[in-house]
Amino acid sequence: xxxxxxxxxxxxxxxxxxxxxxxxxxxxxxxxxxxxxxxxxxxxxxxxxxxxxxxxxxxxxxxxxxxxxxxxxxxxxxxxxxxxxxxxxxxxxxxxxxxxxxxxxxxxxxxxxxxxxxxxxxxxxxxxxxxxxxxxxxxxxxxxxxxxxxxxxxxxxxxxxxxxxxxxxxxxxxxxxxxxxxxxxxxxxxxxxxxxxxxxxxxxxxxxxxxxxxxxxxxxxxxxxxxxxxxxxxxxxxxxxxxxxxxxxxxxxxxx
Length: 256
Ligand code: NI
Description:
The chain is α/β, with parallel strands linked by helices. Helix content is about 40%, strand content about 15%. The protein has 9 helices and 8 strands. The chain has an 8-stranded parallel sheet with strand order 1-2-3-4-5-6-7-8. Strand 6 (about 150), helix 6 and strand 7 form a beta-alpha-beta unit. The longest helix is centred in the middle third of the chain and has 18 residues, at about 105-125. Bound molecules: nickel (II) ion.
């Protein structure tokens, strides 16, 4: 299967330390055409940019993840701004958002970082890649307020709230969870959201789809997610992969 665009991966993660170069070099031959690597903190931004420089098919999203805010100041976002302006392969601000399941970073810290990064993305004309875990209400409130372009990654809300995301012009990111046995909610979302507004993603190394659930994930495994989505939509897997590839190119302004 060719033409896979994985719009959300973390190849800077230590789970790839042993075989990163071998794995990444093998991806194009496994049908992977584009990858958006999402940074989560200053160190991960550095590694993400290095990967984007080394591999033609890797693009970069840079930003501070809500779980990674310990020790960071809002003024540290100046570096994100400078790099986004300077590096042509930076195509999004991410991974940013709110995670209320993660109690080590208080909400009062997460909220201003999320809002400031949305404002930064808008000022730079870049889309946002948004993480929302158990924080739907506050996440939507800020998206409603600022209306950035972007994607709700690993979407975990209901079909009803997906409508609001779509009305705001954002995309819905769908990954391995769609193939899980207990995936009732995300199945409904996949039925409801038009294919033109869906992005395929892995969140690699996490969220590997069935039949690889529990193992390390990588972009080539998106084929399993696309297959499931094709079944739901009643079209071919190739059509799903190609349409989602176009969606991603459009959102992230990639015309390679
Ligand atoms: Ni992620």
